[in-house]
Amino acid sequence: MEMDPFALTVAAEEEVTTKPALKQQRRKKKKIEMDNEGRGQASMYNTLNQQYEEKVRPCIDLIDSLRSLGVEKDLALPAIAVIGDQSSGKSSVLEALSGVALPRGSGIVTRCPLELKMKRTTEGETWQGTITYTAKKQPEGHFNHHVDIEDPSYVEHLIEQAQNDMAGHGAGISEDLISLSIASPDVPDLTLIDLPGIARVAVKGQPQDIGEKIKKMIQKFIKKQETISLVVVPSNVDIATTEALKMAQEVDPDGERTLGILTKPDLVDKGTEATVVKTVHNELIPLKKGYMIVKCRGQQEILDRVSLSEAMEREKTFFEEHAYFSILHDEGQATIPKLAEKLTLELVNHIQRSLPQLEEQIEKKLNNTQSRLTKCGAGPPQDPSDKVYFFIDKVTAFTQDAISLAAGDELQCEANLNIFSKLRDEFGKWKNLLDSNGSNFSRKIEREVATYEQKYRGRELPGFINYKTFETMMKEQIKQLEEPAVTKLKDVADLVKNGFIQLAQCSFVGFPNLFKAAKAKIELIRKEKEVTAEAMLRTQFKMELVVYTQDSTYSRSLKRKREDEGSVPGFKTVNYQDNEATLKEMMLHLKSYYLIASQRLADQIPLVIKYLMLQESAAQLQREMLQMIQKKENVELMLDEDFRVNTERKTLQSRLNRLRKARVLLTEFEYGQLS
Ligand code: GDP
Ligand code: MG
Asked: The domain that contains 308 carries what CATH number?
């Protein structure tokens, strides 16, 4: 059948349903010799009894509607997949079952899984077909194609076109389904999925790994428990060696859901007929679902344009008259119509058995989808004024949390940010540093006070305490604390900043612009406040050089030190005439004052840091965030949602809708079964 001049244009727009050039089809119709004319095989499928048929259609319809909802993305649906080695006769079997010519030729002709939905209509109704598929075209997105077909002879060409759209021109393959629906009085009620044949060697223009790729795709389909594998094997090859049967056995070792189909019985080697009969009798490689044998058109018959209906007549005669195979015919295990009947029964049984699990799966998926959707949040409202309120709410909730964070109160946001305990840690370390610095100082005094005395002593007589020595040593010691104090400030500033940033992250999930704006503010405020705080700390240390405390405070401290030291043996008698005693007295003064100064710094430094870095920063952040609300033009930009969150929400939402519809379909189906 040459199809060349027939160029069908399919609108490639998202969600656009296109009727093809029907007129063109009609015109062409006259020219093309019809393969299907006068098939007259309507009676072929009348073998199923009426009562049973009433059960068959709803069952298959249910699964078809679930599949067209797209539920297959979420869960596996009962299906029959046709697999086989290249040229084993898969397409011929499908052709015979559907009465429609499918693409054929050498090499890998089937390059995408083809879902063949057959729906038997009542006698006298016209043939109707539809092809639907979604081609992914980068970067423009997805294109849904929907083509109504009036004439079965166009199917072949349209499938080729669809495959080119999906897998590219040439020899590539694609995992996406092409769906072909056929409604006719001459087809069985059945849905089958035709998979690319298992290639032994790649042909010219095909990537070397094509065989592996096809195997992977086939595995993906047949490994599902919900799939019945139809393994097509020519009668003239040793069935045990066929790749397709091996693959089916790998995923279904007990043959529970594998059905064998022997083809080409007319080509069987003389003398091996008994083996074929044994195979079909399930005696060689037993499968729970057993075997069927069919004869389709050979290459010569195709060249001779033997019609499909004529071929079916020939098949019948062939089996009836065959010396070995007639028994198979008598037992109902031969011919295409018997195969159709068997497959329909198998599919319906299979569907009915799968329904409880299917329901369970849907329920489970629904719950899971719902909870993930809840996590995604509702997203910004569409209405502009609602949007402004939403924005205000988001920002105020954040600023309130920022203030709470600074005050150590509970947060609305779910972030676990215990800044307060971290600060307590940091300030505890500061106190430890002051203490250990004090101990070092005591050791230094004992080691070096004499040297200092030597250096700084003025005109005082021995026995007088030298104030200059005291002051110099004291200032040197306190100066040593300045840099550690500034470092502490920076550490704490970092800690607080990170806390605020985490809070922003949690408050503005899904709004990257808003988060970025808040983060920038937090970082700027930190820098600003840190400069002020550092200046204050440095001033504090400058002030410390004044060496001051209240007289009474000092006297108390000195008295306590004197008592402490006095209790140490060897210091009991203080002789003021003695030089050594003067030095000891000096030590007492130094230690007393250090104690006072270090106590002051132990509180003062944390106070400055806390006030500026925590309290003031939070207040400033609040002011600046609220200012942001004032600018209405900010709203759109700030609420520009993270596209990942947005996509995720959309995906989940459509899954939810799909699954809900699926649940309704299932319930309706069960209700229908009861009544
Ligand atoms: P596929 O690659 O598995 O789809 O195989 P095809 O259906 O394209 O068949 C391969 C070749 O075997 C074609 O030339 C068919 O005409 C031929 N063929 C299929 N079934 C039979 C049969 O029952 N008898 C004979 N003689 N040839 C057959
Ligand atoms: Mg094929």
From this structure: 3.40.50.300
- pLDDT level of residue 205 (50, 70, 90 thresholds): low
Question: Which alpha helices (H) appear in 294-383, and where do they start and end?
Answer: 299-303, 308-321, 326-330, 336-376
Convert the pLDDT of each residue in 524-572 to its tens digit: 999 999 999 999 999 999 999 988 889 899 999 889 888 887 655 544 4
What whole-number distance in Å separates Cα of residue 495 and Cα of residue 488?
Answer: 11
- CATH number for the domain that contains residue 559: 1.20.120.1240
What is the bridge-based pairing of β-strands 128-137 and 178-184?
antiparallel
103 lines ligand 1 (CB under 6 A): no
Question: What is the distance in A from the centroid of ligand 2 to the CA of 419?
Answer: 68
Give residue-wise pLDDT tens across range 244-274: 999 999 999 988 899 999 999 999 999 999 9
Detail the DSSP E strand segments found in 568-628. none
Backbone angles phi, psi at 9, to 5 degrees: -100, 130
Output the CA torsion 636→641→647→650 (10° steps).
Answer: -60
Look at residue 135 and tell me if it is in a domain.
yes
Q: How far is it, in rounded angstroms, from Cα 290 to Cα 278?
A: 11
One DSSP character per residue, 450-517 reads HHHHHHH--SPPTTS--HHHHHHHHHHHHHTTHHHHHHHHHHHHHHHHHHHHHHHHHHTTT-HHHHHH
- Tell me the per-residue pLDDT of 30-66, one tens digit each, with 9 for 90 and over: 333 334 433 434 344 554 456 566 778 788 888 888 8
Query: How close is the Cα of 138 to the center of ligand 1, in Å?
Result: 37
Question: What are the backbone dihedrals phi and psi of residue 232, each rounded to the nearest 5 degrees, phi first?
Answer: -95, 120
The pLDDT of residue 70 is above 90? no
Q: How far is CA 253 from each of CA 234, 284, 458, rounded to the nearest angstrom?
A: 21, 15, 105
Give the span between the Cα atoms of 262 and 272, in whole angstroms: 14
Higher pLDDT, 206 or 40: 206
143-196 pLDDT per residue, tens:
788 999 999 989 989 998 888 888 887 777 888 889 999 999 888 888 899 988
Which pLDDT value is given to residue 267? 95
Bridge partner residues of 288 (DSSP)? none
Domain that holds residue 263: 5-37+76-356
pTM to 2 decimal places: 0.61
Q: Does some domain include residue 363?
A: no
Mutate to test the pocket of ligand 1, among 35, 85, 91, 92 (most ligand atoms within 8 A of CB): 92
